[in-house]
Write a structure and sequence with these properties.
10 helices, globular, alpha/beta, 6-stranded mixed β-sheet, hydrolase (chains A, B), Creatine Amidinohydrolase, homodimer, 4-stranded antiparallel β-sheet, 2 domains, Creatinase/aminopeptidase-like (chains A, B)
């Protein structure tokens, strides 16, 4: 192990590598190349904002994993991964955004030199950072290899959190609470939205005395009024207005671990349809939390929620949540399970989700959500502890 | 045109579409599908944090462009793009992160229904958001189409900035100056790094009275001491120490336009090798700025810089800059031109670059950079106005 501090114990990294190798064996894979930065960090400890160029972790059965990336980022790898320096390999800078060269030519050369060019290689075909061109280049360079789609292979191993991971997620949850408390304390009519976001960021990054804040994988989202009918608009320089609702979709982040928390503020007196939706959502959340038990399936949560919403006349087609944990931009979800009717994944103790039944209606929006942990027995635990209600302020 | 405010004039969007269509014609493309969020925003006005799911803008010669994306994000599209609502199309939520379906099946259906399934279709093979699986799915769904690699087609049209764009970039530059001034005012030994970052974010987002700050496409980078040998490590909860240098790689952002500015702080008395490197870098930047003239090529800037660095005994292999402008995470570069020896792209008035000769040395790092504009005549203009020197503070 290197001289620097790692966020997790050696046993924890060994546990992760073991899980991945078992799944590789089950799929008869000799080599796994992962480019997803969340998977890279989870397996190797690597942490840096360098995922805008090609890099990855290569997992073998018969040798330690290799961090592979841009030459100038190898310094960062040596300072963050648990593997020794002999397992940090890099490619020259002239491969970067070149018309003539592609970094995958270098990766292919490395695999060829080590005798893996006729093996079965897993790659993440559906991933932000493994481009179509990367795959085509790797195929062309290694014509005798067999490529298998290993999208989500590592992500699925991340679903059940260890105790060490839950410590981080609970710290993230404390930061989430701090952010939302700050919003409620400051928000008022006439406040420029960008100023509110400046405070949100400051709270998120300052974190707590014993838990500095990392950058969340999604920026704060806080659309108002009719803009709140769209879930993903970012802020601007307009002013908070009386008579409008604004939802706040936020997460604290501790060492890349997230615990999202969404709440909605109404400035002024909310109309009845808003209060009705609030009640339906609170009932739906309570029913969903009760269904979020080990042994049930993800779809059970969605159905419990939908039943309460439907009773209040609300039909909702979007999924109602996703697994959370360690993440890099552009998403804090793990992209495996979805809380929706068709998902029959069995819930296991230690799984964590953002239970997220956002309502994006015609001309308005309402978000009240919870980050949840599936327990050994009983309903899910909410990682944050804030009232599940609309926040009304004059 | 829709009822909402657009960041640019109708003439500006028409100019952009015209440029893209001309290049499509030059490459004999009937259809262009762009998934890069920067290209989407530049062409259509679309702005939202929804690029973690598949979406895109489809450009035709014989019809207006189409925004295509997730159902819940169509509300955001209708509120941000210049095309009318008939040109906003969406797919159902059960395509999201599904084991059974892929959003590209929906896109293929749309293209088939409109008679483009036997045409020549350009796609961005090397892009964060167009996955390998997306390409394979599109190919399988449209077996009679011809796919061409259109990576960078739109990016290259963005290289020369319009006057309207330069107004935004100058606002971003004012925000960059404000951020770096704030760092210099606040930084001192014993300050927790996360607290410094909290203030950086607050300054960046608060922006100026007439220019609210948008989220930069890269988070603040500020490694200290030996960590500064690695260019892309993010912050932590440690404390600023005397006797160490910290570089600050930052950018203000105004409505997605960037003007990065990097400076280095030394707390205490810098050693001679640091002062020598500072002088070499200042000389190299001055020489590079003088070479950054319309009619010269990108490589001329790199060579002018390298000559000065070499005279001081510094060999640098990484590229020394890239074009900047409108960007979404994970990168604020445009991924076309590189300021390096082999790049013979002719510089044109209106091109903007981050001239970025970072020094990541053995055990320390130094960054002094400029965002620059190529002028009609004479050397480049620096968009920010701050001394090009090491900032020393006790």
């Amino acid at each position: 192990m290197p001289g620097h501090d790692l966020p997790f114990s050696a046993a924890e990294y060994a546990r992760r590598l073991d899980l991945v190798r078992k799944e590789m064996a089950a799929r008869d894979l000799d080599v796994l190349f992962i480019e997803d930065p969340s998977n890279m960090a989870w397996l190797s400890g690597y942490d840096g904002w360098s995922f805008y160029v090609h890099q990855g972790v290569v997992v073998f059965h018969d040798a330690a994993p290799i961090w592979w990336g841009r030459h100038q980022d190898a310094n960062g790898a040596r300072r963050t991964v648990w593997m020794d320096d002999a397992h940090v390999l890099s490619y020259a800078d002239h491969y970067i955004q070149s018309k003539h060269r592609h970094p995958m030519q270098d990766l292919a050369g490395m695999l060829r030199n080590r005798g893996y060019d006729t093996k079965r290689i897993g790659v993440e075909l559906e991933n932000y950072y493994f481009s179509a061109k990367a795959f085509l280049t790797l195929q062309a360079e290694l014509p005798n290899a067999t490529f298998e789609d290993a999208t989500g292979l590592v992500n699925w191993q991340r679903a059940v959190k260890s105790d060490e991971e839950l410590v981080f997620m609970r710290r993230a949850a404390r930061i989430s609470e701090k952010i939302i408390d700050g919003v409620f304390a400051r928000v008022k009519p006439g406040m420029r939205k960008a100023d509110l976001v400046a405070d949100i960021y400051a709270d998120a990054i300052r974190g707590l005395d014993d838990a500095w804040g990392d950058y969340p994988a999604i920026v704060p989202l806080l659309p108002s009024g009719a803009d709140a009918s769209a879930p993903h608009l970012t802020w601007d320089g307009r002013y908070m207005e009386s008579g409008e609702a604004t939802f706040f979709e936020l997460s604290g982040c501790y060492r890349r671990y997230h615990a999202p928390l969404c709440r909605t503020v109404f400035l002024g007196t909310p109309p009845q349809h808003f209060l009705d939706a609030e009640k339906a959502l609170a009932d739906g959340l309570a029913a969903g939390l009760d269904a979020a038990r080990a042994g049930n399936v993800a779809g059970d949560i969605a159905r419990a929620l939908a039943k309460e919403l439907k009773a209040a006349g609300i039909e909702r087609s979007a999924r109602a949540g996703y697994p959370i944990g360690l993440s890099y931009p552009p998403d804090w979800g793990e992209r495996t399970i979805s809380i929706r009717d068709e998902d029959d994944t069995v819930l296991e103790p230690g799984m964590t989700f953002h239970f997220m039944p956002g309502l994006w209606m015609d001309g308005w929006g309402l978000e009240i959500t919870e980050s949840i942990l599936i327990r050994d027995t009983g309903p899910a635990e909410c990682l944050c502890n804030r009232p599940r209600e609309l926040f009304v302020k004059d």
